[in-house]
Amino acid sequence: MDRDPSLDALLGLDGQVYVIDPEGDHWVRFVVREVPATAAKPHGLDYSLTLHGPDGARLVGFDNAHPVRSGAGPGGRAGGAQDHRHRLRTVRPYEYADAARLLEDFWDEVDALLRAKGVIR
User: Fold this and answer.
1) CB atoms within 10 A of CB 72
2) pLDDT at residue 5, rounded to an integer
3) Is pLDDT of 75 > 60?
4) What is the dihedral of CA 11, 92, 108, 60, to 10 degrees?
5) How far apart are CA 84 and CA 103, in angstroms?
6) What is the pTM (predicted TM-score) of this model?
7) Within a 13 Å sphere around the CA of 104, how many CA atoms are in the beta-carbon half?
8) How buried is residue 102: exposed, middle or buried, by Cβ count under 10 Å (0-12/13-18/19+)?
9) Of 24, 47, 70, 82, which residue is the least packed, with the fewest Cβ within 10 Å?
10) Per-domain boundaries in the chain
């Protein structure tokens, strides 16, 4: 398998925290590390990209720290996708394509939430 050309950009963000609004109330944090590829982490990455609000609570997150259920209620299967996204209290599987797409999807979700909350126009 060829190395993802956008992977170095993603890995370079590891440990970075950025304030992203004029008031300094919202910030993003990146934790990204290469790990051996496994069934749970076939991309060879352990990642967490998060947006936090004024109280420090996570508002948006993309990560692969734990499996997610593939449905709600008693019919939902546990142990579904490892890659997933959080938006407020909702967790959904995420289809990881490559590092560039992960960054694009994360920033799109951050923008959408901040616009919905009236933080940005």
Assistant:
1) 7
2) 85
3) no
4) -80
5) 13
6) 0.86
7) 9
8) buried
9) 24
10) 7-116
